[in-house]
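Q: Sequence in, structure out?
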Amino acid sequence: MAGENRKIKLFVPGRLCLFGEHSDWAGGYRTTNAELEPGHAIVTGLEQGIYATAYRSKDFRVINRLGENNTAGQVEANSQRETYISGENAGTGADPDKTMVADEFSCPMDFKKLRETAKEGGYFSYVAGVASYIDEWYRVDGVTIEITDMTLPMKSGLSSSAAICVLVARAFNELYDLQLNTLGIMNIAYLGEQRTPSRCGRLDQACAFGVRPVNMTFDGNEILVDRMVVGAPLYYVFADLMAHKDTVRILSDLNSGFPFARSDEDKAIQEALGVENTEINKRAVEYIASGDTKALGALMVEAQELFDRKVAPKSPDELASPVLHAALSDPEIIKLTYGRKGVGSQGDGTVQFLAKDEETQKQLMAYLKDVKGMNCYKLTLQPGSLVKKAVIPLAGFGTRLYPETRGVKKAFLPVPDRDGLLKPSILILLEELDEIGIESICLVVGKDEEQYYRDFFQNPLPMQHYEKLPKKAQAYDDKIRRIGAKITFAYQEEMLGFGHAVYQTAGFASGEPVLMLLGDTIYKSNTAEPCTKQLLHQFDLLGQSVVSVHRIPLSEVNSYGIFAGSWEDNEKTVIDLDRIFEKPTEVYASDYLGMPMDNNGEESGYYAAFGAYVITPEVYDELGEMVKEYEARRADGSVAGEVEFTEALRRVMEKQGMYAFVPQGESFDTGNVAAYMDTIARYGR
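A: Exactly. Output:
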């Protein structure tokens, strides 16, 4: 991971402000006028964005690869992108130490030269601004960034400039291990863009948080970002109005009403972007979390009406926006949507709609494109609560527990539970899944093992035994069979590695995120919320694969896969991963895998798998590729190895990102004699 030849893949989306446009800079005026209300905005990343690869280099370079490997459907879009990246926007290239051509920018890692380029303006000014900040404060060598695709429309109020700034900051962070969390990356991207003629708002860099909505608070120079839970699918469409607006003029006009009100118009805009925006934001968070799409759509209409009534009069020429209002009042659009409002600085730039469902989302896009002649894009925000399935790989003999496993499956080793009952360890796991609302459970077993599990979980006790049980025990036996009704099976016919076992559940997962548990691990929470429930809650907030981890001593790292990255929160419970290393030496872990545990960075913590994961379809995709690679190696006679689950996680981490979460609780291992004895002694207390 620390190697200088490492090449990483990056994706950064554009961003869409759902509610609270202009509140970022308005809240910033609290540094001058403390009586102003803090700003609040709900912002989400888009499905469209910038794709790139990056690696270390002596100088700082950005190379445009957009002209290569175009499909027919991409040619027109790429032509638009290249116009913006090159030509009149690319800078003058007058300095012999800086090279700017139509498809490449190169400059030594010299913050003075990079800052000069940033001041010149144009697309490459943004990347230079961020690189200048990195060089000034971190003194690292350069990176080479190759932009391989860009699906994000330019100059549409969707912050393509912020996306490229975040991408550059993320490249430096991952390649030089700068230990920046997402908020740190966002701040450096903002400060880098501030070195250009652009004067972006503080909410633009919210694209750093990915395709998930976040609730942002702007209080003077302070920014708070809270990830949001989505309670039901939200089917958005946003479209380029194909008109004109002057963003600089809009911002100049609106800023004239701050920091102190000198007229009724000033009071109105301060109320609209202050206390009234706060109330709208509060309701929007509630509606998004509860899945009340009709109320959310009505709130969009209400927010637009407030903007038109109290904000637009400060810039009447630009914010009359006839094209926008024609779209908002179009009867066909109203029929297909719950809500409609402007985007970004508003005006005749971009419009957003909340469609009623997936079908009306398609109909609306067709109408906007074919009838209105607009370029339009979809955005679907899915609820994290889609995790209703769990998988548990159980196949295998249990060599470390021989000879007990000659007659008893390792998942059925008994453990005294806290309710006083002696239970098979697998039953303790399944009870927790039932408690947290998991609806379907897939056990990976050998085909000859299936009946063993069916006999226990799905077949009734012989009546002569059942009738001898006390009523409480009879009720518990009914519960076992109710849990058993949730169980289905997948089969691992060859022992080709843990990743291969997980891949057998791809059909069961069917493109949905699933909770994956280790079959020889049980959990005890330190709170009223089970450890697995804590993990699902984090997935709801993060929207990407999440690995549960726990802290272990440095002396034990060579027995585990170790996860490291940057802390996302002050409580040190969430890690934005950039390193996964299987069984490192103590020296390597000490040098590269420690997580800072105090403000001085003098104490390091080391984090290994806790035994529970939420894995997304991307993990199954990587496992599928690894199975193909295994079969190819086996076919040509080379050493095939195994299909390793950790490697699949590493690949997803490098392509899409991944998080680790430290639950409040303890995991107990039943997979070897020493650990099993400890579990027997301590778990049921």
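The chain has three domains: 7-225, 240-382, 385-682.
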